[in-house]
Specification:
The chain is an alpha/beta fold. It contains 13 helices and 11 strands. It has one domain: inorganic pyrophosphatase (n-terminal core).
Amino acid sequence: MAIRNDPDLLVDRIERLIHVDVGRNIGALFAAARGGLWGAASALLNARSGRVGLITGFYVPQGTPPAAETDGPVGAALLAKALASVGIPCRLATDEPCRGACAAALARAGAPEVVIDIVAVGAPLDPLIEAWRRAGITHAISIERCGRSADGAPRNMRAQDIGSYTAPLDDLFVAGPWETIAVGDGGNEIGMGAISRSLIAQHVAHGETIACVTPAQHLIVAGVSNWGAYALIGALAALREDWRRTLVACLDETLDHAVLEAMIEHGPAVDGVSRLPTLTVDGLDIATHHRILRMIRTLVERGHAI
């Protein structure tokens, strides 16, 4: 079915590409968040003068070594580069334990103009919230950031409380006046409060315990959160023809590989599933991720169903 003249349908097809369950039983979460990609892209496009604040970094205390996971900063770095290339400035917030991975990702992506806001675990967030307000942030985008569960603790997919390593950037996310967009893949990330906790509990292991209660106005659920960032770049390219060539150039496998490699070498960073410093994300090899990236790019370039 041709979709060349229907950008909304094209965005829907992009969203379908990232709705691939990699073993977390999140099919019901895909259905609950359906349309979130279109909503997120439309929100960014409707801003008169957009300024984006990114939030990412998910710490793995039992990693070898303990480090931020590879999912999240890769997608955030590519998205920051893409947005900057079409005139939307970004800054990125993370906490001290994830500083190295996020800095390495942004540097290798070629986004040196992105300000990195680092919060010490346990430090007050008021100064950062005020800094974002002064900077005129219009949209907060959280990508694979562990969020607050019902008892207040941020919990990983194993239901472990990682609050001693995780600043409550949920409070920054919802502090406004910015519009909120989130990307997650397991139910415990910032933004997943937009989905019923009972739905997450019904389908995801430890779901009742880990489900994040922090909502987002626009939620993108993906098989892997980096894919959600790829999809948002693709959706913006689909909806803005004058941006298309520039944005599609950021959906580049070589760049993605280089960013992941830089995180491993200089972050440090580890795969969140294996907890090892390998060129993998969520236990999947880089070829699997590049297949998704390539399908999104091809779909936008050709303007028809794959």
